[in-house]
Amino acid sequence: MDLETEKYQEAMFALFRSKGWKYLVEDLEKEQKIAEELRTCRDNNDLKFRQGQLDIIALILNKPAEVERIGTDEENLRFQMS
Fold this sequence. Notes:
82 residues; mainly alpha; 84% helix
């Protein structure tokens, strides 16, 4: 793993351990439950809006796993190349 990627990963892990990240995740999980309630959709535009909300929430909530995969993917690539 190059130095820049390693610094990025360390900074992201520090973020994920912070109290602010935990608060953000709690808030997003609440919003996710609200957006998943389809019975209150008024029309197709509202449905599309909620789909967009859920996509963004999932992107943020999955970020820790994505950052963790960076190192694993690089290790697997090195192993395959040797």
